[in-house]
Amino acid sequence: MIDAAAVGQLRRAPSGVLETDPIPYRRLRGTQVSVGTRADTGARGVLTIEGLLAKPGEASRLPPGALKRRIFDLETGREIDPSRDAFKIGDRLVVVLEGNRNALPTVTAPDGHAIVEAQGPFLLADLLPSAFQVVSSAAFGQTNLVLRGALAKMKPRGDLRSVETDSDRWIAMIVPESWRDNPERGQDGKEPTPAQPHRQPRSTGGEEEIEFRQAYLVRVNMAGRFTFPAASIEPTIPPVKTLRAEQSSIEIKPPDATER
Fold first, then answer.
1. In this predicted model, what pLDDT tens digit does every residue of 39-70 receive, in sequence order?
2. Does residue 186 form part of some domain?
3. Cα–Cα distance, 60 to 142 (Å, whole number)
4. pTM over 0.70
5. Local structure of residue 258 (DSSP, 8 states)
């Protein structure tokens, strides 16, 4: 309901989620949105807003390969290709986010042009399809998680300062690898101002090119086809310019009746 007025009946989408038809954003501004059921059970509503940025310069697409989202099967450690492989309900997956220097945000001038590479921590946000539920916000270094295969050989990169999770997102504050031990920090340990350029070490290829790598664990709870929204990065120092990777799609198989 919007301001106590019904917006129509819910319908079941191909993903299995109950949803309304699209509602114009102007109808939502300054209003109260509520979701309820006729049963005695609770209800949880998720508001999804889709559209184009009013100011396109506020977001930029990251170069191909700058930020990678890799998905692994927790039980085997095998990397899964979402464009080719299908998931199934009950799968436990490790989502690994890693990026090179091209994924690091920059401080921008009022006209939108980059000035210098942003210093200190940045925010990395990964929005989840409704079929996924976060089980652990940090998969590396957990004593209750046994990582196998390729996962066992992976090490975190960058300094993970904090993590926040919700039903539909994983957001982390990370200091990139080349900045966490930056010798240009002052003797008092404070970070320099954004106007001071930061000398990056020369890339030698391989693991040294990875500025950050962090991971979290999810469980698959729903069947259907889902969009995996693009991950985004933005600096913690204004003015903010959001950088976005490519979105993808995933398919989750329903339970096989013969397996019951």
1. 777 666 666 666 655 565 556 788 888 999 99
2. no
3. 34
4. no
5. G
